[in-house]
User: Fold this.
Amino acid sequence: MNMFYLRSRIFFGEDALAALKDMEARNVTIITDEFLAKNGVADRVASMITGAREVRIFSEIRPDPPIDMIAKALAFLLESDTDTVVAVGGGSSIDAAKATVLMYEQKVGRDVKLVAIPTTSGTGSEVTRVAVVTDPEAGKKYPLFSEALLPNAAILSGDLTVSVPPAVTAHTGFDVITHALEAYVSVNANDFTDAFAEKALELAFTYLPVAYRDGENLKAREKMQTASCLAGMAFNDAGLGVNHGIAHALGAVFHLPHGMANAMLLYHVMRYNAELDTAAFAGEPNRVCNRLARIARFIHRPAYTKQQGARNLLDEIKRLTVEMKIPQTLGEAGVSRAEYEKMREHIVESALRDACTATNPRRVDANAIRTILRGIERF
Assistant:
């Protein structure tokens, strides 16, 4: 028996933040980063929470949230007897809040309401049971999986993303595309996740270029938030794949932005998954190839054969990464050959052990990961 489960209430569109006014809460903690605390976004959110007795702000979240910072946020929550946490920010802030709430609930023995307000369009963390934390000493990222990590509500307010710079828009936008595409070809894909993934990809390929070129285009920003949320709902159930497994490993070692690492790998991973790199290309297309060709039709890049359709989609991915100035190689991303060669086998091993790799549609081993990495191994 299979089950598809949604928990988070989603508020979106104009005045979505007004949902905070109706929130039943006594002691609220906003978890965010220093930048959003300084530029007034955290205070704006706090001002909307009119029914609470106390609203406190924890603003020490850093990218790739480390375990020691989660412990610090936990201590902050325990000081105030928090009953509601509002996560404001990108994936790091939301993931940190989710991990903190999970530990807090275990400490106090009761449920805590979690509301997620993304200020980037990429992770989909506002609707997933996944949080990624980092152990800097071990140089590893750990995905956490639990139903308890699902936020109770998500608020999508496109105006919170209009100030996101083009490079970050590109990186987070490709995180959306990678989430949706990996969910779509995952071994656990189903009719429900397919519907979310297809719509997410249609929106992302249409509106990411617009948001990249014109950050103040509110429609494009709102559509990218929707795409991110839909992709999150898709991979929350279907899982991801080796693209994320390798990206987690590269990010933990070289501190590459997660979306950028995903974008650098996506062409090469999907080429591997569709077996466009083998003699099988001349025969019947495999399941992944068929699915990529279907997406190619959605983005108006159809072809007479499934293999050519898949190639058209991958060519469009490559074209967009170049247009958006995303590095094509590790050297362009600032990684030195010496650093990489020293850590290459560690990256391979970490990617193999990553939980995301388990649902990749084509079997991967160490040699397969080395093959994929060769696509970005220029310095």
Summary: The chain has two domains: 9-161, 166-374.
